[in-house]
Amino acid sequence: MGMKMKTIEDFDWTEMWNNAIEGSRWGQRAGMPEFWDERVDWFEELVQQSDRAGMIMSRLKIEPDYRVLDIGAGPGTTAIPLAKNVKGVTVVEPSNGMLARLKENVAKENLENITYIPKKWEDVEIGNDIEAKGHDVVIASHSLVMKDIKNALVKINEAVKRSVYIFIVAGRRNEKEGSSLWSLFNREKPGLRPDYIYLYNILYQLGIYANVEIIDANHNMQFPELEAAVQHYKTWMNVSGADEERLRLYLSGNLVKENGSLWLRHKLRTAMISWRKE
Question: What are the chain's domains?
Answer without folding.
Answer: 10-174+189-218+269-276 (3.40.50.150)
